[in-house]
Write a structure and sequence with these properties.
The structure holds two protein chains of two kinds. Chain A is mainly alpha-helical. Chain A contains 20 helices and four strands. In chain A, helix 13 packs across helix 16, helix 13 packs across helix 18 and helix 18 packs antiparallel against helix 20. The two termini of chain A are about 50 Å apart. Chain B has a six-stranded mixed sheet with strand order 6-7-8-3-9-10, with helices on both faces. Chain B starts with a strand and ends in a 14-residue tail after the last strand. Chain B is of the alpha/beta class. Chain B has 16 helices and 16 strands. The chains are: A mainly alpha, B alpha/beta. Chains A and B meet through helix 7, helix 8 and helix 12 of A and strand 6, helix 3 and helix 4 of B.
């Protein structure tokens, strides 16, 4: 068996660099580190996870949250476990859904528009339905609530990842695809050797970005009011909610600190190694100049433990492979069903009929339960929220774009600032809400205005991010040329910077506006202690309807919000995107 | 000799975008690969040779016709065949040995057995020691060796090569080509036959026993040339040179009939065969400056030049070189006969006279010999406004070429017409129009 680490050729440079200090550790120490680390992790998961199987019989046995800061690590652990379960579920969903949509033309016609809509629907609005649904599914155990919370997080992560995987399946390099067909690979082998690796980098980046969004949903879903009952899961989000009710400032402070530590730890122990590992799936033919580094990845990679596990796994993997290969052979072309125009049109007709039927049922339901006047009122409330989103975008652009461009133009600043911006985007903004609420109450700032700030806290970072990325993508020779021509100030912005970062800005704008709509549900109704501030807008409408369990109003509110988002997407954002592609592509 | 692969009456067309019907890429193509031979498919870019190769490999189905491999009709990827790709097609996240084992693993060979065979194949192509390297760490030549190892380890009946050396630099390509030739000549080649697709004439004559010459627009087999030379084929051999020159002649004269006995009938005069629409005769994509450069160079070098010598001198990519020759021949400035390039009287005149007069000559030649440009000028002159939207001509070209080619044909025709001062083009408005005053240059007799 040829050696796995060394090559005999001295001419070829080592591509994957290793941290020099780690090399000095003898085999024993790095192995011990990995072994003990893995053991500790397993023990931790077992201890924390067992809490999820506690009995739960509302309203008698309800989980409560203790505000003692020493409970925070345990609560943080519970929340983190939820996040990772949701991540695992997202991966499974992504592979299944994305693969189905890319392989089958019929499935694609349903799945992709559905995904589009799902991305636009505010998930927090559906929390009431999902909570009651899951509780019914797991009677007598806390698992129902856990499942509902995990589902909320899952929806934050899954759609982005699925889109990314679907896109990578559709843009597989032609020659690689032909090679796998020509060499007779079965569907399983093709998936494992070509399709999954090709999509891995995009998948991991999207997972990393949406993981941050997941924290926000977690915080909002751990403590919710449905049908006039308040449900609380042990976790850091519900800890914050309890602290707000009890007006416990120090507890809040501790929660924020814990959250920061958790995010940092997960980044170091999980995301950085994963990103470093995924670098091998780069499709370019030569190594990247700045391969991402991770000390954890290097530690694991060099340990004997990993190699030992590899040796044990190999025969198992081979057996699985052989089994899957025979199950997924490529069928002869003559047996593949040819597409006939009749089936096509029949399928389309059935789809249209189903969609129209659903729409009719939905509209009838709403009109008979709440009446058309309510619809008008809701539309108006939606308009108020829309105004807030616009103001938010305008301010974020004016403030953060110049900063982002300045950072993007300077590699030194970028190296420091990007991780910070990443951190800020991952940090769940709703942890900061109580501080802001207190400020609003003390300084008598009307919540109608203040909610804009709250919505911005979570979503403005995407504008910053994308401005940085956009500025970095402007080729240096263009910048030098502009400096040469002595273009300064507004001229420089008008001619070089704005066209250059336009498409990145549009990407950031879409994400920010989507995040803002979702955030409105928790930003337009905020409380501190027994004081509750309610803004007039669609978010507060949905939030109060959820609390009362008013199904027609929940559906109406969520439906109208979805309509606004989808409408804006098609009319504004898609057009801007097309403009960016056509005119401002570098 | 056993027939390994037989393809008969192959037609292939692709649907055009925007429902403009179908575009025919291959028409009535028949190919045969016997055991123990190397066959070359020689054609220009756009002759459908890559499509034909993929049909024979079973990667795409023909629109009509059959492909039989080892007596059975193809119904999916051809398992008797493995392919080496122009762009190497190595999976970047697998090591060299894992890439080489790809085909074996798919066929269900056990792990120890396939490692053994893969190591042997890697040794065969000279990459011993690089088994655990990743493709990122390898040079182009080494990557293609991995491609060869992957294809040969399976021991296919026929080895397909899709322009395997085009993506390599000249020296590496030469090196690798020589090694493959040596391997074949040694007699224990892991495959029974080879089918190579190429646009490089020397390569085809060097490697193969039989060259199938493919025509373009639409793709079809023009004929076959047997390479009856003792192996290994010696480039300095007079017979080798004759074969190469014959193939150059054939490639630059698209209307010439390909004879297997290498007799060389006079090239068919273009002007005489205008039975088809003027919009159906493709223009080679060459700028006027390049054409006049070539003619001037030939005048300087002396009258007759061997095609191969000229190719070496210019060291242009083969496709470009053949295009330039064809353009000069089309305009009547040069002549390719019996492997030599001659400058005609008009060509000599064109190259040596004043700019204004050369434009006049150019205009005269175009109107006489290039139907497409002449047709455009005629249409414009027949209109009262003396102008026409470009879309009109684009639509006419659409019937004969795929969308990308339509634009290129139009651009070339416009460039030639503008140089000849036959018409002018407003790109913003999308309009072609006759110039205000007809140019009045005296055609003095300068002979």
């Amino acid at each position: 068996m040829p050696s796995l680490c060394q090559t005999e050729a001295d001419v070829t440079p080592r591509v994957f660099s290793v941290n020099a200090p780690l090399r000095r550790l003898s085999f024993g120490l790095s192995d011990a580190a990995v072994f003990l680390g893995a053991l500790a992790l397993l023990a931790l998961v077992a201890r924390i996870g067992s809490g999820a199987f506690v009995a739960f019989v509302p309203p008698k046995t309800l989980p409560a949250v203790n505000l003692d800061p020493w409970n925070l690590p345990y609560y943080a652990g519970r929340s983190t476990l939820r996040m990772f379960v949701a991540l695992a579920a997202s991966f499974v969903f992504t592979f299944a859904y994305g693969y189905a949509a890319a392989r089958s033309r019929y499935a694609e016609r349903v799945l992709i528009p559905l995904l589009d809509i799902l991305q636009s629907v505010p998930v927090l609005g559906f929390l009431s339905i999902t909570v009651t649904g899951f509780i019914a599914l797991f009677p007598g155990s806390l698992l129902g609530l856990e499942a509902a919370s995990i589902f909320a997080i899952f929806t934050a992560q899954a759609w982005n990842m699925t889109f990314s995987f679907y896109q990578s399946l559709r843009t597989l390099p032609n020659d690689l695809s032909e090679a796998t067909s020509a060499y007779g690979l079965s569907h399983w082998e093709r998936f494992v050797k070509l399709e999954a690796p090709a999509g891995m980098i995009g998948l991991i980046w999207n997972a990393m970005m949406s993981f941050g969004g997941g924290w926000f949903f977690l915080a909002a879903s751990e403590s919710i009011s449905v049908l006039n009952t308040s449900y609380t899961l042990p976790g850091i989000g519900s800890y914050v909610a309890a602290a707000v009710t009890a007006r416990d400032m120090p507890a809040l402070g501790w929660a924020v600190v814990t959250m920061a530590v958790v995010i940092f730890t997960i980044d170091q122990l999980f995301w950085r190694p994963l990103v470093a590992w995924s670098d091998r799936f780069r499709l370019e033919q030569s190594a990247s100049a700045n391969a991402p580094q991770s000390w954890v990845y290097d530690l694991v990679r060099n340990s004997r433990v990993r190699q030992a596990i590899g040796l044990v796994w190999t025969p198992v993997g081979d057996a699985i492979g052989t089994g899957m290969k025979s199950l997924t052979r490529v069928r002869p072309r003559s047996k593949a069903r040819a597409s006939s125009p009749i089936v096509d049109t029949a399928y389309n007709v059935v789809l249209i009929v189903i969609v129209v039927a659903l729409l009719v049922i939905g509209i009838r339901f709403i009109l008979t339960s709440v009446g058309i006047g309510e619809v008008g009122k809701v539309a108006l409330l939606g308009f108020y929220t829309l105004l807030r989103v616009i103001v938010l975008l305008a301010f974020a652009t004016v403030i953060w774009t110049p900063i982002g461009v300045a950072i993007g133009f300077s590699p030194k600043l970028a190296r420091i600032a990007q991780p910070i911006a990443l951190f800020l985007a991952s940090f769940p903004a709703n942890f900061i809400f109580p501080f802001a609420t207190l400020a609003f109450i003390s300084y008598h700032i009307p919540i109608n205005v203040g909610s804009v700030l709250l919505m911005a806290l979570g979503s403005q970072w995407y504008i910053l991010f994308n401005s940085i990325a956009g500025a970095q993508s402007i080729p240096t020779d263009l910048r030098e040329m502009v400096a040469d021509c002595d273009l300064k100030g507004w001229q420089r912005w008008k001619r070089l910077i704005i066209p250059g970062i336009f498409s990145s800005w549009v990407t950031g704008g879409i994400t920010a506006s989507g995040g803002a709509w979702n955030a409105s549900i928790v930003s337009e109704v905020v409380s501190w202690g027994s004081t509750t501030l309610v803004a007039s807008g669609l978010g507060s409408y949905i939030a109060s309807a959820t609390g009362k369990g008013d199904w027609p109003r929940i559906t109406l509110g969520v439906g109208v919000m979805s309509l606004y988002v989808v409408f804006l997407n098609r009319v504004l954002w898609r057009r801007l995107y097309a403009l960016a592609e056509r005119k401002y592509r570098l | 000799m056993n027939d390994l692969i037989v393809a008969e009456d192959i037609f292939k067309s692709f649907p055009q975008p925007e429902g403009k019907g179908e575009f025919s890429v291959l028409e009535d193509v028949g190919v045969r690969v016997d055991e123990g031979e190397v066959v070359a498919l020689l054609g220009r870019s756009g002759s459908g040779k890559s499509t034909l190769l993929r049909i024979l490999a079973g990667l795409i189905p023909p629109s009509s016709g059959t492909v039989t491999s080892s007596g059975k009709a193809l119904d999916g990827p051809n398992s008797d065949v493995t392919m080496v790709f122009q762009s190497f097609a190595l999976l970047p996240w697998l090591t060299v040995i894992e890439n080489v084992e790809l085909g074996l693993e798919a066929r269900g060979v056990a792990r120890t057995e396939r490692t053994k065979r893969a190591l042997k194949a890697i040794d065969l192509v000279g990459l011993d020691g690089f088994e655990s390297a990743y493709p990122k760490e390898l040079s182009g030549g080494m990557k293609q060796r991995v491609g060869f190892a992957r294809a040969l380890v399976v021991e296919p009946k026929v080895l397909f090569l899709d322009e395997p050396f085009s993506a390599l630099d000249v020296l590496t390509a030469e090196n690798l080509r020589g090694e493959i030739d040596d391997l074949w000549n040694a007699g224990h080649f892991p495959a029974k036959s080879i089918l190579i697709v190429t646009h490089n004439i020397e390569e085809a004559v060097f490697l193969s026993d039989r060259v199938l010459v493919l025509g373009s627009n639409p793709g079809r087999v023009r004929g076959e040339v047997r390479i009856d030379l003792p192996r290994p084929h010696n480039r300095n051999d007079a017979a080798f040179k004759r074969l190469t020159e014959y193939l150059y002649t054939v490639m630059t004269n698209p209307d010439m009939k390909v004879e297997s006995d290498r007799s060389m009938p006079a090239p068919v005069d273009v002007a005489a065969t205008t039975t088809s629409s003027p919009f159906a005769r493709p223009l080679p994509h060459v700028r006027v400056g390049t054409i006049s450069g070539l003619v001037e160079l030939l005048v300087d070098m002396g009258e007759e030049q061997e095609v191969t010598r000229l190719a070496e001198r210019l060291s242009l990519p083969i496709d470009d070189f053949i295009s330039i020759l064809e353009a000069a021949r089309l305009l009547g400035f040069t002549d390719v006969k019996e492997g030599d390039v001659n400058v005609t009287e008009i060509g000599r005149d064109f190259a040596t006279t004043t700019i204004l007069r050369s434009k006049d000559l150019f205009r005269r030649q175009i109107l006489e010999r290039v139907p497409l440009v002449a047709a455009i000028a005629k249409t414009l002159s027949e209109k009262e406004s003396k102008s026409m939207p470009a879309d009109f001509f684009l639509d006419l070209l659409d019937e004969h070429y795929p969308p990308a080619e339509v634009k290129r044909q139009f651009d070339t025709a416009v460039e030639w017409g503008r140089y000849a001062e036959l018409f002018e083009y407003d790109a913003v408005e999308g309009e072609l129009y006759l110039p205000e005053a007809a140019p009045e240059h005296e055609l003095t007799d300068a002979r």
